[in-house]
Amino acid sequence: MKLIPAIDLMKGKCVRLLKGNFNKSKEFDKTPAEQAVEWEKQGATSIHIVDLDAAKTGNPINDKSIKEISERINIPIQIGGGIRSEERIRQLFSYGIEKVIMGTSAIENKAMVEDLTEKFPGKIIIGIDSIKGKVSTRGWLKQSNVLAKELIKDYSRLNIASFIITDIDTDGTLNGPNEQLIEEILLNTTIPVIASGGVGSISDLLSLIKYENIGLEGVIVGKALYERKFTINEANKALSSERLFNVINKNNGIA
Q1: Residue 62, Cα to own-chain centre: how many angstroms?
Q2: Which of 46, 110, 203, 228 has its CA at 20 to 30 Å from residue 4's CA atom?
């Protein structure tokens, strides 16, 4: 399980939303590229980008920032937001993006998503944004009646890289992740899962280590890093120490 820092883009700026509300956004000082460089220096092994404008409108107005980030860092980038066509995917790959995240299309155009996972095996992540267990689309502005766990089951048969599950009710709150949702998702797929939403402390991260052995691949963190609740380096050290502690206890027969 790795920590993956998030860069949410709106009008070329780094922002964070509270519970997915576009009217409750906070801008941060660094440019997106400067922030990505900082995350890499702190020890990030990959970067998560969301183009909020594209997610909301389908209009990719942040490509300049996306290209600048890709040009300035040497670690893999995964990106989501308004990715609803093969043409857009190829365009993002041409910028040096490693993996793309499809969310709205997973609900609205399953046939296209299935086709694209065949054309780009292992390069597509299915992003599932959930409110009370049901999937939201269009940048969290539209609520569906589809259960997140059922969508997970459906797409687990495809050659995708991973799932990202975001709990909108906790996103941006720093009040801790929704462990019940994370565990439910993990128990319904053998595909790696990345969790997002609610992490506000190193303790929150450590509470999720127990899910590593059933497929939790990473945890996306945004606001807690921007507000300096902890650094990536501090988190990486704590995660390594916790794993070592667990291994020692296991070897000593301690449950």
Answers
A1: 18
A2: 110
